[in-house]
Amino acid sequence: MTFTATQIALLIDGKIEGNADAGVHSFSKIEEAKEGQLAFLANPKYEDYLYATKASVIIINDSLELKEKVSGTLIRVPDAYSAFATLLTKYQEMVSQQLTGIQQPSYIAPSAKTGTNVFVGAFAYIGENAEIGNDVKIYPHSFIGDNVKIGDHSVIHPSVTIYHHCKIGKKVIVHAGTVIGSDGFGFAPQADGSFKKVPQIGNVEIEDNVEVGANATIDRATIGSTIIRTGAKLDNLIQVAHNVEVGRNTVIAAQAGVSGSTKIGNNVMIGGQAGIVGHITIADGARINAQSGVSKSIKQPKAAVTGSPAHDYTSTLRSQAISRKLPDFEKRIQELEALIKQLLAEKV
Q1: 3-class SS of residue 98
Q2: Do 274 and 338 reside in the same domain of the chain?
Q3: Cα torsion at 23, 26, 29, 30 (round to 10°)?
Q4: What H or E segment, with its residue span, contains residue 335?
Q5: Phi-psi category of residue 98: left, alpha or beta, with phi > 0 → left and psi -120 to 50 → alpha
Q6: Which of 78, 164, 287, 322 suits 196 as a labelling partner, its CA being 20 to 30 A distant?
Q7: Can you give the pLDDT at residue 303?
């Protein structure tokens, strides 16, 4: 399927510079693009490729001032990266809309309800009283437990497990291998040194427009709900423990772990391999650097922390800068001590 620069510009509200009838049939990185492909430039360090690329259409920022002539057609937008993301989303929607129907073998319980244009892949299982919204895509080998609710336009990729009574909102994407609603890590120490399991009778609630990466685990609450708020984005291999709450538009990078009952605010950014202890709060807009260990609440909005245990980001950088100068400081101190001894000797 081929699209013209005019059609693309209408989709992203862009301004055309060049041949409005230039056509493209696929996407490519700007440094590898060929004739008939669409590329974009958002990072200034790749600007040199703009003047050498063979792409027929290139999306660029309004603010970019050209240094040379460009062979392809340009579409200017306020944010090239976001515009390109919009196009990819629309393309993906077009592809996924072609998937409808129930593949066999699969199992859908008699009491389950499915909306219109639903796709259920082979070997998928949908339990009793489950409710599947319109345009939902459930890929092969996924398990949807009893009384699970999945909102319209959500996508459940292969081999996802959603335990009983969990709720998934609209336009949610869950990637392959993820487990939602497994038991929280609750065990009561006994006098003999053993541990008694505490039943986990809550659930997981994921609100709208959330994306969860591959092989992530979100535990069900002991009582109540583990909650992932609207717009949150969770990367691959993330552990979210029981009764955690992740705020709106918060992003968590791969291999991070959040312990039980911690409340994370809105618009928080958490780097990869960060660890957060249980029963604390993280203020709105906080920034937690990769591999940080957060052992106490972050109460100041938009605070930035790093290290283990995590400290103020700017102060930590200053400390690191000073530590690199310690050999020089030691030398200067030794010189000062020698000078002092010399002055004392002369005074005597």
Answers
A1: coil
A2: no
A3: -10
A4: helix 326-347
A5: alpha
A6: 164
A7: 96
